[in-house]
Structures are given as structure tokens and as C-alpha cells.
Amino acid sequence: MRIVPFLCSTAITVALVAVFDRPLGKVPPLGAFFSPQYGFWQNAEPARQDYGGTLSINGLQGPVEVFFDDRLVPHVFAENEQDLYFVQGYLHARFRLFQIDLQTRAAAGRASELAGSKAINFDKEQRRLGMVYAAENALKEIEADTQFRSFFDAYTAGVNSYIEQLTESALPIEYKLLQSKPEKWSNLKTALLLKMMSKMLSGGTENDLANTNAKSIFMPEELQQLYPQVPDSLLPIVPIGTEFPKPAVIPVKPATADSLYFNNKTTVAAQSLDRPDPGNGSNNWVVGGSKTKSGYPILANDPHLELSLPSIWFEIQLKTPTHNSYGVSLPGSPFVVIGFNDSIAWGVTNSQRDVKDYYEIKFKDQTRSSYWFNGEWVPTTMRIEEIKIKDSLSVFDTVAYTVFGPVQFDNRFSNAISADRNLAVRWAAHDPSNEGLTFYKLNKARNYADYEEAISTFTCPGQNFIFASRSGDIAIWQQGRFPARWDGQGLYVMPGQDSSYLWQGYIPQQENPHAINPARGYLQSANQRAADGTYPYFIPGSYITARGVRIDKKLATMSAITPRDMMELHADYFNVSAEDVRPVLLANIQEGQLGLKEREYLEILRSWDLLASPDSKGQTVFQCFWDSVQVSIWKDEISRTNPVAPWPSEQTTIEWLLRDSVHRYADDINTTEVESLAMTITASFKKAALFLAAKEAEGKLVWSRFMNPSVYHLLKEALPAFARKGLAVGGYGNIVNAIKHSHGPSWRMIVHLTDGIEAYGVFPGGQSGNPGSRFYDNNISVWEKGEYNRCWYMRDGDRANQQVKWVLRFNKS
Amino acid sequence: MKFFLSVLLTMLSGVGISLWALSPWWGFVPVAFLVAAMIHQAPAKAFAAGFLGMLLAWGGLSWWIDWQNSSLLSKQVAVLFPLQGSSAALILLTGVLGGLLGGVAALAGSYLRISKSKME
Predict the structure, then answer these.
(1) What is the CB-side half-sphere exposure of residue A642 using CA atoms within 13 A?
(2) What domain range is A648 assigned to?
(3) Looking at the partner chain, which of A1, A31, A41 has a beta carbon nearest the beta carbon of B65?
(4) Does A771 touch chain B (CB under 8 A)?
(5) Residue B70: its chain A contacts at CB < 8 A?
(6) pLDDT mean across residues, chain A
(7) Beta partners for residue A407, in sequence order
(8) Domains: count for chain A
(9) Which of B68, B105, B107 has its CB closest to that of A46?
(10) Can you give the residue ranges of every domain in chain B?
(11) Is the peptide bond before A310 cis (omega within 30 degrees of 0)?
(12) Is A630 part of a structural domain of the chain?
């Protein structure tokens, strides 16, 4: 009799367990996820978590001590370098495992394994850009150097040592949400991470595809006007007046360049899906002892990147008996990347140089097995790519490799209308190189000569390495392996049927733009063109001029500088672009045509103090108005082709308005009327006013409300709860304090090279990647207020110092 | 007394089963079943005891974790699972999920006991 209810209730029990053990759509398995012993509750770290302890580890040569301070910054003391990087790997995995796993899978075009089918095209593009090919080439170079290889091996072993002891309950919460497991680390993954940086910093600094469309509609003189190489107001990295030696490499323009290249009017429909933000820039500067109060140099750096939680940076001190470096590391790679030791400090900004070109390939047939090159059919190399997809079957893609590089766009991967165009990509990041070696050497460098030697092999992405030493030297080098281009080479898609369009050589390293101990006592870089027009090579790129102008002018007038002054310059909200262009805009507004509300906005603009501060209304009015003006001037012109030609840069537009107020581009070519500049500017203002009124109704006229400065979790809108939004900061891409929605100063560092080293730093995040840790976002409020943490540069005698909160000991087993 | 004992044993199993490293997250389910099979109670009472035992186990554990964590994580997870950021609601949901499983397992266990006694 009771057998029926027994069977029924047992079946219900089993069914419930089964249902709760399985994901329901996007919802993770409820039982496993909510179980206090296995699920997300295990990621809720006690506020009084003890990060110390003693570990017995197989693979170490000696003991390693890790001293955590009250911000969870590890100060790693090892007896040799292999052990040092082993523990760095362990700590990166301990605090940032999901991040390093996600970033390297995405770099390798394996995002679909975590994200499902929506990431297939992203993955295909990563593969077709040759990201894994690039990492493999780098790894060959890295592993050829046995000593250096041992550092990568140790780092990999450290990451894996952490992964191997992980229990299900200790998995980062993201794995529990995504129903996934971490993957074992490898040297290739470290190489992939560095290629991710290459893509971020040199994958979007060219505009070859859109430029090709511009060339189809504009005459050569128009192209010069719209996309000039050297802006009028440029204050270059290398001080004006510096003499450059005669170039050792003189590239030769191909005989067919005019007919097949410059005068080729065909458009190209292909476009990259995942184009890195061209605003991935940065500031760095250094002032020599003659300009500082103490007589010692001060170095400052703030790399501008997508702001994320966890942060792209992890603060760390790395010490052996022979060196002691401090700064930020990139989780996924050994070494300090930006930082200092007891003799020198260094920082980086992006060179913005174009090191990526496209070539049009002619395949023999649909099989793509051979292509026409130097008068014959040459076989391609095929690389079969399997893209594994979460909860679905794999997708396969075959990428053809040519003498130039992989064919990124062809009839199997492109916009429908570009089916007949095959574009191979030639990218400096594909070349064998060992960027990590530069950072390794910088960690140990003691003087200018060591620094110069350390950076000399750095290949891609081109960086502006700034330097200061305690002995008083200051210097900057724009370093990378840059192609020596003939004038105009690589601005547009090039013919790919013979060797004459290949890169003919590289600019000799010693001819890279650089400056040492200038008389003026300071150096700076802020993504502007490195040198003025007297530099003897053709160096296209995506340069940003305004920040460099502001920083240069400020530094020129400052004296008796202290670290506090440098903090104020990091926080500078002055809008130098607005200072230049506001008078022209105001002079051209036909006030008689404005309504009441419009006059109100005009008054806000007129009385604005030119500061993009968080509570500014003037900055909001200016930016909306100025964007509207640029749209009115250029949209009709650049839309004559599809996809559109590139927007002329803000700097170009400003300089054009200052130079020539009757320029024909002010006219809207889509109307019969001929609009004057005043008519266009007035109409733009009216459009902007409508938009502003709508924003004001939402309470978003104040700049920080308008811009909504935010730091998102790596999985963006998928995990909004893990983001920190609506921060009370101002700034913009063209402003020294370059915060732009979710992009901006990802690490602010100031190093005063006194005998004791006085250093400050902050990034908008925290050391831990765990949203359940108080160290997940503890530095955001510090960063938001424009404040800094004092970096504690620990020495041998400090083991018993009160600043040590926890000690983690690694013993060899 | 039986009811109290059942609740206590179920709760202890719900808290302690994870000490056994090989236990899956649902390791307490067969224990709740056995408790109900061995301590004879009416089905409704058995369900209530299993439910209450696991509600206390999961609710109590998560409350303890949350208290130590100053609700840092629960406030965020209670946005992912739309509970308006309420840590208390998330703790209650955790307890109810555990309670439901404990309850049905105990219900099944109680029937096993009854059917056995009939056979005797």
C-alpha cells in the first residue's frame, strides 16, 4: 500500500537533486551554486581572512617568504630568480585565476569555450589575425634562451602548483557561474597574454581598411588635408630642434606605386569586428633634479586602458639577493612591467605607431591552395582551426598563410559584399621576439646603460619607455621594431602580387626617436607623434596631440617640483582642445537664431572654466556641441563611401577651423543650399541643445552623470553586480586625466628617486579578483578621490616591520 | 523528542557531510533519508523535520559565512539573482533550497520505514 508514495517521493527526491545539479538556461545549477560548502558562499571571504601560512611545495629550490601588507600587496623574498617567478605565478593564480584563464583563452580565439556560440566570430577573427601563430613564434624565441626559459618554466609551474591543489569549493566564483573549470597553464599562455597586449596597443593604431575607402573618394590633396601626418600644434616626445642623423635605411617606392596603389580607387568592405580602442594611450613624464625641490628626479606614469575588475594590473614587490623591484605586473606574465628598483624607475606609454598592413591576395581558385606572387602560383600554408563551443559542436575554420602573413579576410570570413577580396595581414607582432626579456632586465637595471640595453630588443607593441635614475639621468626612447616605410607605404591596402610592396627593412634601433638629459630638464610622452617633420622616416600612426601639449606646457613652467605637484598634474582636468576651439565656435554662433533654452546652454559654455571636472556642466555642453559640429562638418563627406572613410581627427578639425574659416567642408553636400561655417555651427548647436535638454531632463547635465565613469567586471554586462558604476570623476580622452566612461588611467604611479625611494601608486580595483573579498575594489575610492597609496619598498631588515600583516612561507618539499 | 532528534541529526549531517572530501554537494540527501527511515514519524512530520533540519543547516551556515564576510558578496549575488540586493533574502533562499531537498528525502525515508513495518 505504502510502496506507491515511497516510490513517488523517492522519485521526486532524485528528480529534485538532478534538477538542482544542472544549469537552467543561464542560471547555474542551483544546488551546487547555493550549497554553503561548495557554491558561491565559499567565495565570501571572512573580513578577517588570514592570507598567511606555510606551504610545502614540490619544485622549489629553496624557501620563499611572501610578506603581505595591509593592502594585500605581496613582497616576495626569494633566494633565486626561478623561485621568485614560481611564487609570482602562484600568487597570480591565487588572486587572479579566472582573469588569466579568460584573457589567454580569448587571446587564442577560444572565448566560445566559455561564452558559447555568440563568440564564434570573435574567435575566428583572433585566429585569422594569427594570435596563436604570433605567440608560437614568440615562444620559439623565448625558449631558445635557456636561462630565460627557466623563468617562464618556473612561472608556469607556480600557476599550475596553485591550480593542482584547488578544490571545487575554492574555485573562483566566475567558474561556478559559467559551469567551467580552469585550465592548466603553459609557457604558450604567457606568450599569448603578451600578444593580447600587442593587439590592444598595436592592433588598432592603423586604419588601412577605412583609409582605402577614403582614397576612393578624396583627391590626394584632400587626403593630406583631412588626414595630415604632422599636426601644427604638435609638441613631440623628442624636443623640437633635436637633430636626427642621416637615415641608414632608405626604402624604395615600387615602380607601380602610383598606378596600382595610390590611384587605385576600389573600396574595401571588410572591417575588423574587434578593433582595439584607439584611445588605449597613456601619459608618462619625468623631471630632472634641476626642476625638483629635492634635486632628485621624479617619474610619473599613467597607462590608459579599459578599466576592469579585476584590474589588468597586480601590484607586487620581487626581491632576490641581487635585485629588488617593485611595481605592477600583468597577471599571466612574470616580472614587474611598470615600476622601480633602488636605482631606477621606468614607465611606458603607447607609441601609437602603425605596424600592421594589409595586402590584397589573388588566389588561384576557391581552394585557396596557391596565390599569385612574383609571377607564379605559390602554395599557401593551411592552418585548420577548431573552435570549441560551450554546449555545442565545434566549428572549423581554415586559414591560409602567405608570405605576408595569414589571410584575415576572404570569402569564408568577411562581410557579404567583400566576398571577392582576400586580405592578408602583415603585423609586427607576428615576428619572433621576446618582450619579457626587456622587463626582466629593467627589473634589475642599475643605470642608464642597463636601461638602454634592456629596451633595445623590444619589438612590438612600440612603447615610449621613460626612465629616471637616482644618479640623476632622465631619458625616453620610443622603442619597437618599426618598418622603414617609403612615403605613403601601408596607409592603404597594398597590392600583394609581388615582393616590391613588402616591408624592405626596419628603422635601425639607434635611430628610434629618443632624448637623454635635455637642457630643459623634463621629458614627456602622451601618445603624440614622437618627432616633428624633420624625423627622416615616414611614421604613420593614430596619434593624440592634446594631452602632450598640456603636459609639456605645464612642465615647462613648473619648478621646485614635489610628488604632490605631479599628483595634481595626473588629476588635471584642463581641456586644452576646448581652449583652442571654443573661441571659433562662439564667434560663429548666430545668436539671433537661438531660443531661450539654447541661450541658456550658450551661457553655460561661455562662462565655463574649461575644466572637465565631475560637476561641470560646461564640459557636457562643450562636448555635445563639439561632437555635433564634427558630425555636421564631416559626416556628409566621409559617408560618400560605404563603409565610411575615417573621421578626421579632432586635432585636425581644430587646426583647420583655426586656419581657414571659409573651408568648403562646412557645406553639407547633401543639400542644394551652400552652408557657411556660421550656419553649420549654429545648426550644430541647435541639435546639441535638443540632446542636452533630453539629458538634463534625466538629470545628466553634470559631466560625471553624463559620462557615467564605471569599472566593469571582465564579463561586462553579463555580471553587472560585479561592476562599480557612477564614479564621481571627470576627465576625457583628450584631457591629461583621461577618464572616458570605462576607460582611463589604469595605474597612476609617481616615483621620487630619493635615497629611500618615495613612491606612490593606485589602480581602480584591488589586489584580489574575488568579488567576495574586501580587496576586490578597495582602491577604487582612493583612485576616485585622486589619492594614492604609498608603496612600501620593503628591505631585508623589514621582516618584523608592523606593516607586514600576513606571512606566507613556501618551503621546498 | 523524535521530531527534535530528527531535526538535529539532519541538520548535523547537512553541516558536516562536506567534511568527507568525496561527498558531492547533495551528500546530505541520503542522510536525511536514512534519518527519517530510522526515526519513525508520520510522513508530514518527517518532511517537516527534514525541511527544518536542512533549512537550519544551509540557512545557518550561509548566515554565518555572510556575517563574517560583512555581506560583501551576498549583496552582489542578490543582484545577479534578482533579490534587490537583499542578503537576508539570499540566505533565506539558500535555506529553503536545502530545506526542500531535506524535506522530500525525509518524506521518502519515512515511507520506507512504514512499508517495512507492514511487511513485518
Answers:
(1) 2
(2) 576-699
(3) A41
(4) yes
(5) 47, 774
(6) 95
(7) A424
(8) 1
(9) B68
(10) 2-119
(11) yes
(12) yes
